[in-house]
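User: Second chain of the day. Same drill as before.
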Amino acid sequence: MTKPPLTVYLAAPRGFCAGVDRAIKIVEMAIQKWGAPVYVRHEIVHNKFVVDGLRDLGAVFVEELEDCPDDRPVIFSAHGVPKSVPAEATRRDMIFVDATCPLVSKVHIEAERHSDNGLQIVMIGHAGHPETIGTMGQLPEGEVLLVETVADVAVVQVRDPDNLAFVTQTTLSIDDTKDIVAALQARFPAIQGPHKEDICYATTNRQEAVKAMAGKIDAMLVVGAPNSSNSRRLVEVASRHGCAYAQLVQRATDIDWRALDGIGAIGITAGASAPELLVDEVINALRDRYAVTISEVETAKENVEFKVPRVLRTPGQASA
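Assistant: Same format as last time:
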């Protein structure tokens, strides 16, 4: 049978960001340096394929530091951790490596700077997300207040409305965050914001690429994990900007083919923790059923690199 034609719009940028790439390299280099097992507190990044691959190399993923033995190295995930975690690792005389994304660390530093200046912090983020927990854990309890929605802004109770600052989780929807920031500024006119946008470049770039293709397509497939905040935001962005159907898939086997029946154009992107191999897998699955023509939609170029911690590098090694 002749395969029906399908135009695949491929988002660029997509997939791994510099922070994710750095975090994965840190785990790989730790295993090379110290041998297996190396412990990792929480998933190093939110992607099952990546985590399973590192587990096969000798990484052991645990939820809390108390699940780690004293005599093996432990790595803190790219999402960041409360200050109490490295403090406890130091108390136990453990070898530990912090794989927190430098852009998340920037938010931590901002929060501390504002606090040192006597300001209470309002954080825009998702309750229970590791990045939110890590950022709020940089300061004593009560110094960082969480808001998730515009409605939360109306009821948040602050110590002094004239001495406030806000920070944001780095993986949020740009559009949602803009509305929440506007609500904060309307209720608290003196509130201070970051010198530079907290939402990371990779989150912004991936969302802009989705917006650029959303009006051209009948459906969107976002390659990413269900616990990946930035991947879930890409699904929402596609739906809000004119795409009739958007689905989050971890692997090609997750595709709901019935929902794609009769389509002529589809968009594909990947969250910042999803490897390109899984994008290729989805494209190949589409080729099995359609006569595929690929058109790349590029809205930005990325050339960001982050160095790995010095403890993992020999003198001759360049940045990762």
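Residues 315-320 have pLDDT under 50 and may be disordered.

User: Great, on to the next one.
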